[in-house]
């Protein structure tokens, strides 16, 4: 009988913990703020020019690489 009560208490505690976790802060806005450059060919978001350059050379080798200042913000 005691185990039944302990089980119910553990389940209630778990539900409370999950409710707190679900109501936590979302990192979507923080992530979106970090992605400042978008690829003009495929519109993939990048965090900086170095990542953009690596992506562009790997995914779009036939296209000329845009200059750093001409890459539009996402």
TrEMBL record:
Start and end residues of each stretch annotated as Disordered: 1-28
Organism: Rhodotorula graminis (strain WP1)
Record keyword Disulfide bond present: no
GO cellular component annotations of the record: cytoplasm; nucleus
Main location: cytoplasm
Lineage: Eukaryota, Fungi, Dikarya, Basidiomycota, Pucciniomycotina
UniProt domain Small EDRK-rich factor-like N-terminal: residue ranges: 1-30
SUPFAM superfamilies named in the record: Expressed protein At2g23090/F21P24.15 (SSF118359)
Keywords: Cytoplasm, Nucleus
Pfam families, per the entry: SERF-like_N
Gene3D superfamilies associated with the record: At2g23090-like
Descriptive protein name: Small EDRK-rich factor-like N-terminal domain-containing protein
